[in-house]
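User: Structure with uridine-5'-diphosphate, tokens only please.
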Amino acid sequence: MKTLLSVVGARPQFIKAAPLSRALRTRSNLREVLVHTGQHFDASMSDVFFEELGLAKPDHHLGIHGGTHGAMTGRMIVALEDLALSVKPDAFVIYGDTNSTLAAAVVAAKLFVPIAHVEAGLRSFMPIPEEINRLMADRVSRWLFCPTDAAVKNLAAEGIRKGVHCVGDVMYDTTIMMTDRAREQSTILGTLGLQSGGYDLATIHRAENTDTRDALAAVVTYLTDAARDVPVLLPLHPRTRQAAERFGIDLSRLRIIDPVGYLDMTALLANCRRVLTDSGGLQKEAYFHRKPCVTLRDATEWIETVETGWNRLWRGPDYRPRRDNQAYGDGRAAERIADILAAEV
Ligand code: UDP
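Assistant:
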């Protein structure tokens, strides 16, 4: 029996871990120990995803959140190292590009425990915190599970070829798992009095859009202009709420709600007119639900969505001609990863 220490901490990681955790737990030679760092911790950013996605209760909760990048990552490194010394895992499983990803990568690499990085190889070629976390995590990983061919090429360009597997996108697995359930169970449209096709769905949370008054004001102005046409619904990330309060930015012409769980988000995606977002995950989910997207950034890691005409950058050229996008696999990415880890750990 081999022990995997899976580390999650932020909302997108719960969504990515759900199908893989489920798949790993069906492999008889693997035992998963799930750690929640605490990076996102409240009911609407954390608990609801565990409940709705059927993710097992974490075996360990480190309760670490807030502070600067260095303070948060440093505290996670100390706590994860302690935990790893007692659990003695045969491998770490890490997800995406957050401070939790980076902390786990540093701990595992220094203890010589092999790392499986889920969503490896993504690059925006911008000096943003997520990019730094991805570069570091990919550099020390043994298994690099790429969602797309573009991600494989990015790694090859950095000289990383060993252990690279193009498995498809685990978030597509999650979308397939949840779309029918959302249609049956979510009542959010009625609760908010929204009509199908009668609103745009927006999210903002990236540091590049929330760290300065000018940046946040520019995004809010863009959304407010869009809201002349149809209401723009903005489930507000806690970081963005704090920034808007701190900078005195008026959000009153947008339809603001608290962050929603995955079932409600899926229903909102399936029924919106279009998506306006700086989120990585949401750009793809827009495509999964065949909704056009405007990315509120000057770069995207998910270039296939732009190439196939479903997505554009807000300050970039117009949509390209629209076509089908086969880039994200067949909804069995998690099964492929579990097969490889069951055979190789
Ligand atoms: N999401 C959600 N509720 C919300 C906002 C986002 O369930 O109120 C989901 C969204 O559908 C996507 C994920 O959270 O699956 C994206 O997370 P986030 O934007 O925090 O991170 P990123 O994708 O940029 O890493």
